[in-house]
Amino acid sequence: MGAIQKIFQPFTLFFRSNSIGGFILLICVAISISLANSSLGEAYHHFLTTSITIFPDQLNIHFIVNEILMSVFFLLVGLEIKRELMEGELASIKQASLPIFAAIGGMLIPALFYSLFNFGTANISGWGIPMATDIAFAVAIISLLGKKVPLSLKIFLTALAIVDDLGAIVVIAIFYTASIQWTYLFMALACTLILLFLNKKNGRHLFPYLIIGLFLWYFIYQSGIHATIAGVILALTVPTNIGNKISPLEKLEHRLAKPVAFLIMPLFALVNTAIVLNVEALSSLSSPIGIGIGFGLILGKVIGISLFTYIAIQLKWSAMPTHCNAKHIIGAGFLAGIGFTMSIFIALLSFSDLQSQTTAKLAILVASIISGIIGFAILRSTKDSVQTAEPTTVQL
């Protein structure tokens, strides 16, 4: 393995799994919408909402996917964030500054757009929906362009989306927690301290972390904070190292990449995009929720990312990615307007009524499709990029 391949291997693994996962996600969205609008629609909805008794709790498919399996998704996201902070594109201020500034703009401006259309209404709780970028879909689309775009732009978009995910996690933890059960929260804190102690003592075996992580999930769930945050906390305590030696973090990340990309995220799409496309649903796109999400994802994202990138470069806080120009940044900004997974997840937390959730989901899907098409067209029309060879593809 050459030196260049060693440097880019984590990014290549991440990029490859997400690009393939994005295409699978798209297929699952099509299947889910088709089932919901077919003669099987009622049976499909009944299946998703049927409860089963496990111990004292009543669980249904929605709970299992959105609360339990998505905790594993957040665990993987947390591992990716920690790796990038320790040894990846976010490992130094110089490397991280531009995607961080771009991500901040890409979160603030969409939230502002949504708030302008929903200010003073009960719908204002959905301001976090257009802040998120779906890594899998964005990476899947930019991967279709091959060498049409520079490798540096792919890395920029991926790093931006990772910072975006971190911002969404913080937003969920702080702003989408209704009430807190302090006893359970202190028990969750105790689990976190144990995990930090294991890390400090250089515990390299994953098994103790995962066992304590299960207790952490349960206590956080009972505390009132969304249980998926447990996955992020666990990820940040898993030990890593800088260098060529495979760390426990990298082992766990590699083991989770396929299940998350090819099972958990497709299940999330199948469960949460069963939207019945009737006149009422389509007309709801013109509601404040629909317009706020649409403007936030389609325009807010690209404006925020482009504006904050321009400011950071003009103030010489950051440098333009190699072989990139303003057109590349604008195209990437539109791709960042694909908000699928995290946006839908925040929508489920924002609204308790089914009608608002359906409106938000449909608006996210439509806005994401429009943003993706525009971003692809802009980047497709750029001149063939001159770039250093990409690292050899690493098979997962």
Question: Would you summarize the structure shown here?
Answer:
This protein has 15 helices and two strands. The protein is an all-alpha fold. It has a domain at about 5-60 and about 90-175 and about 275-380: Na+/H+ antiporter like fold.
Q: Please tell me how large the radius of gyration is.
A: 21 Å
Assembly classification: single chain
Mean pLDDT: 85
What is the molecular shape?
Answer: globular
Q: Tell me what the CATH architecture of the domain at 3-58 and 90-174 and 276-380 is.
A: Up-down Bundle
Largest sheet: 2 strands, antiparallel
Query: In percent terms, what proportion of residues is strand?
Result: under 5%
Helix content: over 70%
What is the succession of H and E elements?
A: HHEEHHHHHHHHHHHHH
Number of strands: 2
Query: Count of DSSP helices?
Result: 15
Low-confidence region ranges: 3-8, 386-396
* Structure classification: mainly alpha
CATH homologous group name of the domain at 3-58 and 90-174 and 276-380: Na+/H+ antiporter like domain
Query: What's the N-to-C terminus distance?
Result: 16 Å
Which key features would you list for this structure?
single chain, 396 residues, mainly alpha, Na+/H+ antiporter like fold, two-stranded antiparallel sheet, globular, disordered C terminus
Describe the structure.
The chain is an all-alpha fold and 396 residues long. The chain has a domain at 3-58 and 90-174 and 276-380: Na+/H+ antiporter like fold (Up-down Bundle). Helices cover 71% and strands 2% of the residues. The protein has 15 helices and two strands. The chain has helices at residues 3-36, 41-49, 61-87, 93-118, 135-144, 151-175, 182-200, 206-223, 229-237, 248-272, 279-283, 288-314, 326-335, 340-350, 354-380; strands at 51-54, 57-60. It has a two-stranded antiparallel sheet with strand order 1-2. The model is unreliable at 3-8 and 386-396 (pLDDT under 50).
